[in-house]
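<context>
A single protein, sequence plus fold
<entry> Chain with its tokenised backbone below
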Amino acid sequence: MKIGDNWVSLNALQTFQVAARHQHMGLAARELNVTQSAVSHQVRALETSLGVPLFDRRGRRIELNPAGQRLLRSIETGFADIASTALSLSTDAFSGQLSVAVPVSLMVEWLNAKLSEFLGRFPGLSLRLSYAERTMTTLPADVDMAVVFSAHSFPGCTVTPFMRTAIFPVCAPELSRGSLPMDPEILKRATLIHEDDGDIWAQWFASRGLEQFRPQREIHAGSHHDAVAFARNGAGFAMTDWFLGGNTLRSGRLVQAFGPRELDYDGYYIVTRMNQSPSSPALALAEFLVREAEAATNGQA
């Protein structure tokens, strides 16, 4: 494409987008299946064509400067528009029923709106939804695609990273009594709310170098959504992340109890069958959700 008096290749823009996402030339090269020097060459060619540097280089690491941040936002918006248009041109290609299994918490907090948006583009496509258990390790015969938490080996399937999660404790504002961050010692006299068998809280205690103690009371909720609902209603302290709990935190109905420090805790993955047609609705939905998750991570959705 021509920008001013210079030509800029779409390949250079795509390479820049991947390098910007990873903040690392080597990781970008691995994703694009090219050499690191090829990535560096494409980025420098783009910078030369535009007449401005896009990264601050710090040894092996790279960091977007303000110009790079502006360009990245425009590229991601443009690529998303192209993908959306390409999908809409294929409206007649998708019909019948698409069967999807998803975690209930992700469905309630984020996925419902995205599935509705996707289906709005394909009037002939029906959806059959089921809930994926945390222990799922095989894709049921009647399911075309699944979103699962934590990577497992799914025989005959492709497992694609979807979104990473970084978790932290939250509580209702009234429990903090206006004093934030709180002292973790308060948990000895509080209620811990679990969405699992206690492993998430155990990892958080370990990450803080704290000896895990038995709280005054524990609630074992059936899901992340239920655990956060208990916390929102003042029942105790639960764990969440910005992806699932961001809206509630921004609204002030929950607060980060012990400061902004977060614990990197696995993530969500999309599972599709290896033998599916490249033009199948399941793969189209998977690509759509990956783009939407990236946009949400970058504050666009």
Observations:
- The radius of gyration is 22 Å.
- Residues 29 and 36 are 5 Å apart (CA to CA).
